[in-house]
Automatic annotation (TrEMBL):
Residue ranges occupied by any MARVEL domain in the UniProt entry: 23-155
GO cellular component entries: membrane
Compartments reported by the entry: Membrane
Keywords annotated in UniProt: Membrane, Transmembrane, Transmembrane helix
Short name of one Pfam family: MARVEL
Species this protein is from: Eudromia elegans (Elegant crested-tinamou)
Alphabetized InterPro entries for the sequence: MAL (IPR013295), Marvel (IPR008253), MARVEL-CKLF_proteins (IPR050578)
Biological processes annotated in GO: myelination
Protein name: MALL protein
Topological type in the membrane: Multi-pass membrane protein
GO MF: structural constituent of myelin sheath
Signal sequence coordinates: none
Listed transmembrane segments: 29-53, 59-82, 94-114, 134-154
């Protein structure tokens, strides 16, 4: 018996990675812009306080600023299609967002501690409100990074 031709190529069941504006239409990648915006708000709000606890809030500012910049670079790489639909980018994305979620959780807890410490002190109402808002955005950003990491993993 002669074969009828070459065997059909196996098709991948994994959806392709988005490029261009399709990034803003797919679920895991849709979280990237809110992650950047909320992380920027964390950095701005902490910088607007007197940073009375430099060790704690310095870590918060480092995590928020570095995560914001790395997430922006990752978003731009998706927008311009640098991934070339390579599946290794999916692993890189999941690992980055998982690790960043852990770092952001530590920063959010430290910011909450700084918020409690700023309740009494000079300029307490204004700094307490700014620290409270920074804590809220830090926990919100942590949640967004967790959602992104798990949605990539289960996608």
């Amino acid at each position: 018996m002669a074969s009828a031709g070459p065997a059909p190529a196996a098709t991948s069941t994994q959806p392709s990675l988005p490029s261009g504006l399709a990034v803003f239409k797919t679920i895991p990648y849709l979280f990237m812009l809110p992650e950047i915006v909320c992380g920027t708000w964390v950095w701005i709000l902490v910088a607007a306080t007197s940073v009375s606890l430099p060790l704690l809030q310095g870590w918060v500012m480092y995590v928020s600023l570095s995560s914001c910049l790395l997430s922006l670079l990752l978003l731009l790489s998706y927008l311009f299609g640098f991934h070339r639909n390579n599946e290794n980018w999916r692993v890189l994305d999941s690992l980055y967002h998982g690790a960043t979620a852990i770092l952001y959780m530590s920063a959010a807890v430290l910011q909450a501690n700084a918020t409690i410490s700023s309740e009494s002190g000079p300029n307490s109402p204004r700094h307490y409100q700014l620290n409270s808002a920074a804590s809220f955005f830090a926990f919100l950003t942590t949640f967004l990074y967790i959602l992104h990491a798990f949605s990539i993993y289960y996608h």
